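Hi R.,

As promised on Friday, here is the backbone we talked about, encoded as structure tokens. Could you run it through your design pipeline when you get a chance and send me back a sequence?
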């Protein structure tokens, strides 16, 4: 995957991005911005893509150092291959919810056996409500292991 228009961000641009991203962007001195072939804007720290902007939404990548600070949805091993193919998270596959979050916030999807991050998604329900659900979609998959962004990073 080729990156286009790669350039270093100025301090004021990093500050502005940090204000927008909040917890999603750790304290950094140097950050680069580039564009992927599909139009996704990516932010690099060294050679690692740590954050991306898709459809105007900032999301941390699976290589971001901030993942451990985000709330998590733990899924059973039967859901893993589906999520790694881009499927959204369905309620029957959820075995645990770690941390508190509101609908629309970014969460990390992890497997139950190893606790590895499989995907980054947007919660469709609050954490308390999600724990009680037995059916339906609960997390929209935004970035997952094996997608273009993961392979580029």
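Update: got your reply. Pasting your designed sequence below so it's all in one thread:
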């Amino acid at each position: 995957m080729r990156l286009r228009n790669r350039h270093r961000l100025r301090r004021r641009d990093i500050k502005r991005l940090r204000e927008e991203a909040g917890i999603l962007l750790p304290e950094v001195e140097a950050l680069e911005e580039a564009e992927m072939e599909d139009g996704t804007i990516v932010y690099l720290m060294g050679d690692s893509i740590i954050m991306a902007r898709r459809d105007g939404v900032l999301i941390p990548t699976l290589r971001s150092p901030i993942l451990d600070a985000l709330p998590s949805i733990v899924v059973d091993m039967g859901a893993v291959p589906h999520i790694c193919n881009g499927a959204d998270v369905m309620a029957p596959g959820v075995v645990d919810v770690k941390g508190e979050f509101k609908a629309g916030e970014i969460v990390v999807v992890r497997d139950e056996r190893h606790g590895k991050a499989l995907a980054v998604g947007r919660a469709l329900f609050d954490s308390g409500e999600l724990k009680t659900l037995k059916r339906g979609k609960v997390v929209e998959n935004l970035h997952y292991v094996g997608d273009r962004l993961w392979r580029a990073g």
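One thing I noticed while checking it: Helices lie at 11-21, 80-83, 127-132, 148-152.

Thanks again,
M.
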